[in-house]
Automatic annotation (TrEMBL):
Superkingdom, taxonomy of origin: Bacteria
GO molecular function terms noted in the UniProt entry: oxidoreductase activity
Keywords: Oxidoreductase
UniProt similarity note: Belongs to the short-chain dehydrogenases/reductases (SDR) family.
Ketoreductase domain span: 8-186
Protein's recorded name: NAD(P)-dependent dehydrogenase (Short-subunit alcohol dehydrogenase family)
Species whose genome carries this gene: Nocardiopsis metallicus
InterPro entries tied to this protein: KR_dom, NAD(P)-bd_dom_sf, SDR_fam
Length: 249
């Protein structure tokens, strides 16, 4: 376990797969206590893989009651929370503004935006009560928070909302020792991005895109977690060097 002030209590949502799983395992390997939150206990337990530093809490981030129960469990177990990685998210169907259905729109916005707000609200309340100790909140944004993919209206809108959430949090919480980051990821290899092996481009063509190992995203998050709280990283982008980002619009 990390020694002294280096040891942190970290909550990760969407910890059952992808970037959440990779980050959880990296931070557990660094000796932190990591609370793994997600809808399916089985996948969370697979992430934990028997680590003594892991705590599994089934959570539906779209439910404010479920999120309150998550942070209640964290408070009861540890008495504090040092880091929240707001990672849970869905991509939703490929659809433009005239094609997106009601239920698909609600699912993406409820998970990516309301879910992030629910978790940030509970974490911020605990961290404010810990002042001057404070804490750190990392929101998982996306390259789509800057430049959209074709037919991704719900996801793109949700990630622009994460930019607003992170900016508002940085303004409102900085006086309480709370630092907030938006990490924008481009083409990290996960089940969620598997379809980008043949991705539709802005010019209408379909072609393969390069990707990076999700471990590199976990490395970046681990670095941010290691920083003292007087250091703020408002935004950071981790992406495959040759992915079409600058010319995507």
């Amino acid at each position: 376990m990390a020694a002294g002030n280096d040891h942190k209590v970290i909550v990760i949502t969407g910890a059952g797969a992808g970037i959440g799983r990779e980050t959880a395992r990296r931070l557990l390997g660094d000796g932190h206590s990591v609370v793994l939150a997600g809808r399916r206990r089985k996948t969370l337990e697979e992430t934990a893989d028997g680590s003594p530093g892991a705590v599994v809490v089934e959570t539906d981030v779209t439910s404010a009651e479920s999120v309150r129960a998550l942070f209640g469990a964290v408070r009861e177990r540890f008495g504090r929370v040092d880091v929240l990685f707001n990672n849970a998210g869905v991509f939703g169907p490929a659809a433009s503004v005239d094609e997106i259905g009601d239920s698909a729109w609600r699912e993406v916005l409820d998970t990516n935006v309301t879910g992030s707000l629910n978790c940030a609200r509970e974490a911020a309340a605990m961290m404010k009560a810990q002042a001057p100790q404070g804490g750190r909140i990392i929101n998982n944004g996306s390259i789509s928070a800057h430049v959209p993919r074709p037919s991704s209206v719900a996801y793109t809108v949700s990630k622009h909302a994460i930019s607003g959430l992170t900016a508002s949090m940085n303004l409102d919480l900085r006086g309480y020792g709370i630092a907030c980051t938006q990490i924008d990821v481009g083409n990290a290899a996960t089940a969620m991005t598997a379809g980008f092996g043949q991705a539709r481009q802005a010019d209408g063509s379909v072609r393969a895109e390069p990707s990076i190992d999700a471990a590199h995203v976990a490395d970046m998050i681990a670095h941010i977690v290691s920083l003292p709280l007087d250091v703020s990283v408002p935004t950071v982008t981790v992406m495959a060097r040759e992915m079409p980002f600058a010319g995507r619009g």
